[in-house]
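Q: what sequence does this backbone want?
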Protein backbone atom coordinates (compact mmCIF):
# COMPACT_ATOMS: atom_id res chain seq x y z
CA UNK A 1 0.00 0.00 0.00
CA UNK A 2 1.30 3.44 -0.92
CA UNK A 3 1.60 5.80 2.04
CA UNK A 4 -0.61 8.89 1.84
CA UNK A 5 1.04 12.12 0.76
CA UNK A 6 2.27 14.35 3.56
CA UNK A 7 0.31 17.60 3.77
CA UNK A 8 2.80 20.09 5.18
CA UNK A 9 0.11 22.33 6.67
CA UNK A 10 -1.23 19.43 8.76
CA UNK A 11 2.12 18.60 10.36
CA UNK A 12 2.76 20.25 13.72
CA UNK A 13 6.27 18.88 14.37
CA UNK A 14 9.15 17.88 12.10
CA UNK A 15 11.82 15.72 13.71
CA UNK A 16 15.13 15.40 11.88
CA UNK A 17 18.15 13.25 12.55
CA UNK A 18 21.43 15.14 12.07
CA UNK A 19 24.35 13.26 10.55
CA UNK A 20 23.70 11.88 7.06
CA UNK A 21 20.21 13.41 7.17
CA UNK A 22 20.51 17.20 7.22
CA UNK A 23 23.87 16.81 5.49
CA UNK A 24 26.07 13.96 4.21
CA UNK A 25 29.20 13.02 6.10
CA UNK A 26 32.25 12.80 3.87
CA UNK A 27 34.70 9.85 3.77
CA UNK A 28 37.27 12.09 5.42
CA UNK A 29 34.94 12.87 8.32
CA UNK A 30 34.11 9.19 8.79
CA UNK A 31 37.79 8.27 8.81
CA UNK A 32 38.58 11.02 11.28
CA UNK A 33 35.72 9.92 13.56
CA UNK A 34 37.04 6.36 13.52
CA UNK A 35 40.51 7.67 14.36
CA UNK A 36 39.25 9.79 17.26
CA UNK A 37 37.18 6.94 18.68
CA UNK A 38 40.04 4.49 18.26
CA UNK A 39 42.51 6.79 20.00
CA UNK A 40 40.12 7.41 22.88
CA UNK A 41 39.32 3.74 23.47
CA UNK A 42 42.96 2.72 23.15
CA UNK A 43 44.04 5.25 25.77
CA UNK A 44 41.04 4.79 28.07
CA UNK A 45 41.27 0.98 28.18
CA UNK A 46 45.03 0.73 27.64
CA UNK A 47 44.68 -1.56 24.61
CA UNK A 48 46.25 -1.49 21.15
CA UNK A 49 44.43 0.06 18.21
CA UNK A 50 43.31 -3.26 16.74
CA UNK A 51 41.63 -4.23 20.00
CA UNK A 52 40.21 -0.73 20.35
CA UNK A 53 38.57 -1.05 16.94
CA UNK A 54 37.14 -4.46 17.82
CA UNK A 55 35.65 -3.03 21.03
CA UNK A 56 34.30 0.01 19.19
CA UNK A 57 32.43 -2.08 16.62
CA UNK A 58 31.28 -4.63 19.18
CA UNK A 59 29.80 -2.01 21.48
CA UNK A 60 28.12 -0.23 18.58
CA UNK A 61 26.43 -3.49 17.54
CA UNK A 62 25.49 -4.52 21.07
CA UNK A 63 24.43 -1.18 22.56
CA UNK A 64 23.57 0.96 19.54
CA UNK A 65 26.31 3.41 20.48
CA UNK A 66 29.97 2.87 21.37
CA UNK A 67 29.67 5.46 24.13
CA UNK A 68 26.81 3.51 25.73
CA UNK A 69 28.91 0.35 25.84
CA UNK A 70 31.84 2.17 27.42
CA UNK A 71 29.56 3.66 30.06
CA UNK A 72 27.90 0.36 30.95
CA UNK A 73 30.97 -1.85 30.77
CA UNK A 74 33.67 0.51 32.03
CA UNK A 75 31.87 3.27 33.99
CA UNK A 76 33.08 5.93 31.57
CA UNK A 77 32.28 9.55 32.35
CA UNK A 78 30.60 10.44 29.04
CA UNK A 79 31.90 14.02 29.07
CA UNK A 80 35.46 12.73 28.58
CA UNK A 81 34.38 10.96 25.39
CA UNK A 82 32.33 13.93 24.19
CA UNK A 83 35.23 16.34 24.75
CA UNK A 84 37.58 14.09 22.77
CA UNK A 85 35.17 13.62 19.84
CA UNK A 86 34.60 17.38 19.73
CA UNK A 87 37.98 17.66 18.00
CA UNK A 88 36.32 16.46 14.77
CA UNK A 89 37.14 18.79 11.88
CA UNK A 90 33.88 19.96 10.28
CA UNK A 91 35.32 22.06 7.44
CA UNK A 92 33.91 19.59 4.89
CA UNK A 93 30.41 20.79 5.84
CA UNK A 94 29.37 23.73 3.69
CA UNK A 95 26.47 26.18 3.93
CA UNK A 96 23.27 24.89 2.32
CA UNK A 97 21.10 27.89 1.34
CA UNK A 98 18.50 25.77 -0.47
CA UNK A 99 17.94 23.60 2.61
CA UNK A 100 17.78 26.70 4.78
CA UNK A 101 15.16 28.23 2.49
CA UNK A 102 13.04 25.07 2.61
CA UNK A 103 13.20 24.88 6.39
CA UNK A 104 12.19 28.55 6.61
CA UNK A 105 9.07 27.88 4.55
CA UNK A 106 8.15 24.61 6.19
CA UNK A 107 5.32 25.20 8.69
CA UNK A 108 5.43 23.65 12.15
CA UNK A 109 7.95 23.12 14.92
CA UNK A 110 11.33 21.65 13.94
CA UNK A 111 13.51 19.57 16.27
CA UNK A 112 16.73 17.62 15.85
CA UNK A 113 16.83 14.19 17.51
CA UNK A 114 20.36 12.84 17.39
CA UNK A 115 22.55 10.20 19.00
CA UNK A 116 25.33 12.80 18.81
CA UNK A 117 25.85 15.58 21.35
CA UNK A 118 24.67 19.17 21.45
CA UNK A 119 28.04 20.85 20.84
CA UNK A 120 28.53 18.87 17.64
CA UNK A 121 24.94 19.55 16.59
CA UNK A 122 25.28 23.30 17.08
CA UNK A 123 28.54 23.35 15.13
CA UNK A 124 26.98 21.47 12.21
CA UNK A 125 23.87 23.67 12.20
CA UNK A 126 26.00 26.82 12.14
CA UNK A 127 28.07 25.53 9.23
CA UNK A 128 24.93 24.59 7.29
CA UNK A 129 23.33 27.95 8.09
CA UNK A 130 20.12 26.45 9.50
CA UNK A 131 20.30 27.17 13.24
CA UNK A 132 17.56 29.79 13.20
CA UNK A 133 14.96 27.35 11.85
CA UNK A 134 15.03 24.90 14.76
CA UNK A 135 13.08 24.99 18.00
CA UNK A 136 15.15 22.45 19.89
CA UNK A 137 17.82 19.77 19.99
CA UNK A 138 17.31 16.43 21.71
CA UNK A 139 20.77 14.87 21.98
CA UNK A 140 22.19 11.73 23.56
CA UNK A 141 22.52 13.36 27.01
CA UNK A 142 18.85 14.44 26.91
CA UNK A 143 18.06 10.77 26.28
CA UNK A 144 19.99 9.72 29.42
CA UNK A 145 22.56 8.23 27.03
CA UNK A 146 20.06 5.70 25.73
CA UNK A 147 20.52 5.74 21.95
CA UNK A 148 18.06 5.30 19.13
CA UNK A 149 16.36 2.96 18.31
CA UNK A 150 15.31 2.31 21.94
CA UNK A 151 11.78 3.67 22.24
CA UNK A 152 12.32 5.42 25.59
CA UNK A 153 14.10 8.48 24.14
CA UNK A 154 11.29 8.98 21.61
CA UNK A 155 8.77 9.09 24.43
CA UNK A 156 11.00 11.49 26.37
CA UNK A 157 11.29 13.68 23.28
CA UNK A 158 7.52 13.78 22.83
CA UNK A 159 6.97 14.63 26.50
CA UNK A 160 9.62 17.34 26.53
CA UNK A 161 8.33 19.15 23.44
CA UNK A 162 4.65 18.24 23.81
CA UNK A 163 4.64 16.41 20.49
CA UNK A 164 1.46 14.81 19.20
CA UNK A 165 2.87 11.80 17.36
CA UNK A 166 0.02 11.55 14.87
CA UNK A 167 0.84 15.09 13.69
CA UNK A 168 4.62 14.57 13.52
CA UNK A 169 7.04 13.50 10.80
CA UNK A 170 10.42 11.93 11.54
CA UNK A 171 13.24 11.95 8.96
CA UNK A 172 16.18 9.56 9.40
CA UNK A 173 18.95 7.87 7.42
CA UNK A 174 18.99 4.71 9.55
CA UNK A 175 15.86 2.70 8.83
CA UNK A 176 15.69 0.88 12.16
CA UNK A 177 15.64 4.23 13.98
CA UNK A 178 12.25 4.89 12.42
CA UNK A 179 10.63 1.82 13.99
CA UNK A 180 9.88 3.50 17.37
CA UNK A 181 8.62 6.63 15.58
CA UNK A 182 6.20 4.51 13.57
CA UNK A 183 5.13 2.60 16.69
CA UNK A 184 4.21 5.91 18.35
CA UNK A 185 2.17 6.96 15.32
CA UNK A 186 4.55 9.31 13.53
CA UNK A 187 4.85 9.51 9.75
CA UNK A 188 8.29 8.20 8.82
CA UNK A 189 10.67 9.28 6.06
CA UNK A 190 13.80 7.27 5.33
CA UNK A 191 16.67 8.99 3.54
CA UNK A 192 18.33 6.17 1.64
CA UNK A 193 22.10 6.68 1.35
CA UNK A 194 25.01 4.62 0.07
CA UNK A 195 26.27 3.92 3.59
CA UNK A 196 26.81 0.35 4.79
CA UNK A 197 23.84 0.49 7.16
CA UNK A 198 21.51 1.43 4.29
CA UNK A 199 22.28 -1.73 2.36
CA UNK A 200 20.32 -4.97 2.51
CA UNK A 201 17.43 -3.34 4.40
CA UNK A 202 14.49 -5.73 4.20
CA UNK A 203 12.22 -4.61 7.05
CA UNK A 204 10.44 -1.56 5.64
CA UNK A 205 6.88 -1.94 6.92
CA UNK A 206 7.50 0.93 9.36
CA UNK A 207 8.66 3.31 6.60
CA UNK A 208 6.08 5.55 4.94
CA UNK A 209 8.31 7.36 2.46
CA UNK A 210 11.74 6.60 0.98
CA UNK A 211 13.75 9.52 -0.44
CA UNK A 212 17.32 10.26 -1.52
CA UNK A 213 17.18 14.08 -1.61
CA UNK A 214 15.91 15.89 1.48
CA UNK A 215 15.83 19.36 -0.05
CA UNK A 216 13.94 18.17 -3.12
CA UNK A 217 11.49 16.31 -0.91
CA UNK A 218 10.81 19.40 1.21
CA UNK A 219 10.50 21.62 -1.86
CA UNK A 220 7.75 19.34 -3.23
CA UNK A 221 5.91 19.37 0.09
CA UNK A 222 6.01 23.16 0.24
CA UNK A 223 4.74 23.50 -3.34
CA UNK A 224 1.79 21.23 -2.56
CA UNK A 225 1.04 23.18 0.59
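A:
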Amino acid sequence: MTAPLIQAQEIKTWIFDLDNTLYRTTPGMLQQTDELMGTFISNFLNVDRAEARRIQKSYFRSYGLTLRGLMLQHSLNPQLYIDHLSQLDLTDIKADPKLSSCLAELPGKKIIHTNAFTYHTHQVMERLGITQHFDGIFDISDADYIPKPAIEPYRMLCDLYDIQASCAVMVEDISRNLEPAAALGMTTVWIQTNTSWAKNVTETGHIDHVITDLTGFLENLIKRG
